[in-house]
Structures are given as C-alpha cells and as structure tokens.
Amino acid sequence: MWDPRIETMPYEQIKQMQYKQLKKLVNNLYSFNQFYHDRMRAANVSPLDINSLEDIQKLPFMYKQDLRDNYPDKMFTADKSEIVRYHMSSGTSGKPTCVAYTRNDLDYWTEALARSLTAAGLTSDDTLQVAYGYGLFTGGLGLHYGAERIGATVLPAGTGNTQRQLEMMQDLGCTAIACTPSYLTHLMTTAKQMGIDWKRDMNLKKAILGAEPWTESMRAKFEESMGIKCIDIYGTSEQAGPMFCECEAQHGPHIWPDIMLVEILDPKTGEVLEPGNKGELVCTMLKKEAMPMIRYKMKDITSYNVEPCECGRTTPRLSRITGRSDDMLIIRGINVFPSQIEYTLMRIPQVGDQYMINVTREGDLDRLVVQVEIKPEAFSDKMEDMIALRATIEASLKRYLNIAAEVELKAPGELPRFDGKAKRVNDTRVF
Ligand code: DLL
Fold this sequence. Notes:
Blueprint: H1 4-7, H2 11-32, H3 34-42, H4 64-69, E1 83-89, E2 97-102, H5 103-119, E3 127-130, H6 138-149, E4 153-155, H7 162-171, E5 176-179, H8 181-193, H9 198-201, E6 206-210, H10 216-226, E7 229-236, E8 241-245, E9 260-265, E10 279-285, E11 296-302, E12 304-305, E13 317-318, E14 323-324, E15 329-331, E16 334-336, H11 338-346, E17 351-362, E18 365-374, H12 383-401, E19 406-410, E20 425-427
Helix pairs in contact: 2-3, 5-6, 7-8, 11-12
Bound molecules: 5'-O-[hydroxy(phenylacetyl)phosphoryl]adenosine.
Residues 89, 132, 138-139, 210-213, 232-237, 241-242, 298, 300, 321, 324, 330, 335 line the site of 5'-O-[hydroxy(phenylacetyl)phosphoryl]adenosine.
C-alpha cells in the first residue's frame, strides 16, 4: 500500500477524520471566501450548524452551472499568486469550465494517483504508456505525475498516431497503458491489422481504463484477447482529474476518504442514500485549496460500498458508473453537451432551427453525425456552395467541441418536427 494509515483506517475513524476536515473547510470558506459565504448565507447555514458529518446535508449543492456562471475565476478560493495550473473541460454551452490548482492541490492529486496506481498493482518496475490527452484535459498530466511519484517509467504518448503507439509499446516493452476503453479497442484492432499478436509480441500486463463508461463484458473481452488485467479509473475535472482506481481485486474504484467525501442521493427525491444503494454521486473535496467544490453534483449514477475490500483496504469503493442523470454525452472520451452543439450551430447565420445529433459506434470508434437544416435563403443548388457551408459548420463544431463531427446538410423542412419535447439526440451505442 502507498499510505496504509489512510488506506486501512476503520470506517468509523474515517468518518471522524472527515468531520474534522469538513468543519475546518466550512469555517475557512465561510470566513474568507465571498462566493461560499454568500451561498451559505443564502441557504441559512453557518459553520456553527456543522456539528457532525451528517450536518453536511445542511449545506447547499453545487452544480456545473455554477462553474459556468462564475467562469473563469469567480469560484477560485486561492490568490492568483498561489495558483500554479489551470485545466479546462467542456461546459454546457460555448463556455468551458476552468479548474485551478495550487501547489498543494497538485500534490494531493498526485498522492491520490500514487495510491491508486499502487492499488492497481503498478510498481517502479513498470513502464506506463499514458495515452490520454495531455493539455487542457486532465487525463494525461494526472496519470503522468501519479506514475512518476511511484517511480514507474512514463511514456507520455498522448493521443492519436495509433501505429506509432503500438510500435513504441513493443519497442519499449511497456507493461501498462492508461487510455480510454474505446481507444484500447482501437489499438487492439489496429494491432491485428499490423499482424501483431498481443500475447506473443507485447509485454503489456495492465490497462488503466476510464474517462468514459465501459462494461464488464468489455473488460472480459480485453482481458481474454490481450492477456492483460483491466483496471477501472474514475475522476472528473472538477475533482482534479483521474483520481480513483480499482485495486487488483477489481471491485470498483477505491475512494481516498481524506481527499473526497462521497454522498449518494436518490435522483428523484434528493434523499441521501445508505451505502450500497444506487443514485447520483455528490462529492466534497476536503483538501482542495483553489477550488474545493462542496456537495458538487457529479451527475454520475453509482453506489458506494463501505465493506472492507479483499485487498485489505477499508476505504469506500464506487460501483461501476452506469449512466448520468444529465444529457452529457462522452464521445471518444470527450465530454459533449447537446447544448454546446446547439449553441455552435445557432451562431452560424445560414443554419435553420432544426438539427439532429446521431451518435453510433462503428467498429471501434464512436461516430458523431450532426444533421443540420439550413435556411431557405441559404440553400443553393450549387454543389460547391453546399460543400463550403458544410466545411464551415464542421470547422465550428471542431473548434467548440474539440472533437470531429460529420455534418449532413438537410433542406428546409426535411428533419422531423416535434409536437412535445424535442428529441434531438439519437445515441445508439450500448454500454
Ligand atoms: O474524464 C477525468 C479522467 C481522465 C477520468 C482519465 C479517468 C481517466 P472529465 O472530462 O471531467 O474528467 O469527465 C468526467 O467522465 O463525470 C463520468 O461521467 C465520466 N467518467 C470518468 N471516468 C469514468 C469511468 C475525466 N471510469 C466524466 N467510468 C465523469 C464511467 C467515467 N464514466
């Protein structure tokens, strides 16, 4: 274990530790931060009301909308001079969300991943190919520093260039890879086309897979055909980034309770559920300095388990994420809100009111096709005008979504109209 004191702490003691941390956090934010002070006042709660861990339920929730409304920096709780990094992810419209980190925030994030990767069975003997995006997305840099902290050798491969990824993996004898499950499928297919036999030609033993939903049957398929062990990793940019991995027993990601406090809510009634029940995940980051996030509604559907794990750890574990309670799509590992697509389309003068978003899985890859009706006055029977318009729309979508979408232009009146609630997303992928 990386930190046996935390990782084997009895559950009752964990709760006491979390209560003390929560109390301190609430005191600090109420006293020194205008945003949180105003929010607590509006909810009629003050630090004096927090006298047990359960009293967290008196605090108001936070939502992605808060990040959007306060973009970029109104929710930061550290001085600019203390902020050492930003990451960004998709917001629900054209605006992204921005998360700030102090030096200590980066340290705790790295610490969380050091524990996680150790739980997943990685050691300083491993070479980890990090095939998550480096840059504004948290996957690459998060895994990178976590793996370096445990002394593993890191190959910062980033995304794309699949043949080269496979050659590097083979040449350097990489023992582990961190990537999205859809990218692992793509690697598997490309390897086959290149005549590579995983079990014979590769030294890979483990894959650290997350950033999008995946299933037990995908796990079985990878493990069987590649002869590796697949580990689920969970995290969100609002928490810091990837943070929590399964251990080798593969019973769901272990949560580090000194770093994050978990609640599960009934999505219909809002009632806080007991461990073992499935509902909406709500997280409180107990140690973050630049952006703590108290009772943040993640929108992911899961449960948590507080029974000690067979690996000996006592920390709570999440069950596999089975969906989201909002409409966010994750396409090729990238978060996409339908509202972002609408926002982008509606700023293009030639585009009419109707559009459809189609997401399919073809072979290994997610495919995003946006059908767009254009205005009568923009419609032309000159092929080159239509090709140019399509290219303009595709370029705008790429710029705002950070993902390639294919656009199909439709004549006015061609797309379906809706009597009631419009259904503009057709996602046929099965998770
Ligand atoms: O996806 C952080 C990450 C990077 C996690 C690398 C794991 C590995 P966001 O871009 O903010 O952050 O997306 C967070 O992705 O709310 C879930 O809906 C989904 N997600 C992340 N991990 C998993 C997982 C990163 N293991 C959103 N299973 C979350 C299912 C996941 N969904």
